[in-house]
Amino acid sequence: MFRILEKKNLAAQVFYYLLEAPDIARKALPGQFVIIRLDETGERIPITVSDSDPARGTLTFYVQAVGKTSMEMSFMNKGDSILDIVGPLGNPSPIGSFGTVVLIGGGFGIAAIHPIARALTQAGNRTISILGAQTKDRVILEDEMKNASTAVQVVTDDGSYGAKGRVTDILQTMIDKKEGIDRVIAIGPLIMMKAVADLTRPYKIETLVSLNPIMIDGTGMCGACRVTVGGEMKFACVDGPEFDGHAVDFEGLLNRLKSYVTEEKTAKEQYVPENEGTCRLVTTS
């Protein structure tokens, strides 16, 4: 059992959790993830480790309540426990001296980009983070990203905060100004990462994307997270989660992720919270 030490509501349906997990905290590195299971009948879902403190034995997670399990977790509170946390899983993000690195976090992807930005800055890189969200109230971790990066730019779809537009607009402006970008790392919705990779490809700017598709066991045994990269079949959980964005078959991945839309929608609709900390599942005929 893994106890929740702290919980905060950061934005609409976005929650911060500090969990007690000393063994995982000692080993977790930027870019890695864990797989959690709330209870004996729960599904397994991947969550990126946003921070770890080996001395305190804690992990920091950010969870967006969009599906049945994440919604159920949103009703858990300080003092509650999660049954299983397996990890750290996946390969850590490569950290080295690259020069100027642009880190792009789209929506909830900001939480995943944060530890990578901090590690790259500490390694001596010039890090420029672009944070994208639909609206002002969906921008998360801005202060944390400012502390972790050399510079931060915010863009919202509706212009309610920062620049109006998309993350690719900011990136294109930087390219046009010949900022000398050595590497781009993008984490967020698949369609956003695809747009970033499409933009940087003709400029031959090395671009990494973090793929977090359907995962079950996180060890490569089930094959649920298979993706095509450079014409070869890869498993996002063990070969990734970061890949060369220019080599990823985004069209195939987007089509695969539509496979369980009906089941995901049904599970979400059947989940009816009664009060914080408990829930019931309704059966429909």
Any overview of this molecule?
This protein is α/β, with parallel strands linked by helices and 285 residues long. The protein folds into 2 domains: 2-91, Beta Barrel (Elongation Factor Tu (Ef-tu), domain 3), CATH 2.40.30.10; 100-210, Rossmann fold (3-Layer(aba) Sandwich), CATH 3.40.50.80. The protein has 9 helices and 19 strands. Strands 12-11-10-9-13-14-17 form a 7-stranded mixed β-sheet, with helices on both faces. It has a 5-stranded antiparallel β-sheet with strand order 5-6-2-1-7. Helix 3 (109-122) packs parallel to helix 4 (142-148).
Question: Which architecture of the largest domain per CATH?
Answer: 3-Layer(aba) Sandwich
Could you tell me the mean pLDDT?
87
Number of domains: 2
- Alpha carbon gyration radius: 19 Å
The helix count comes to 9
Structural class: alpha/beta
Name of the CATH homologous superfamily of the largest domain: Nucleotide-binding domain of ferredoxin-NADP reductase (FNR) module
Termini separation comes to 35 Å
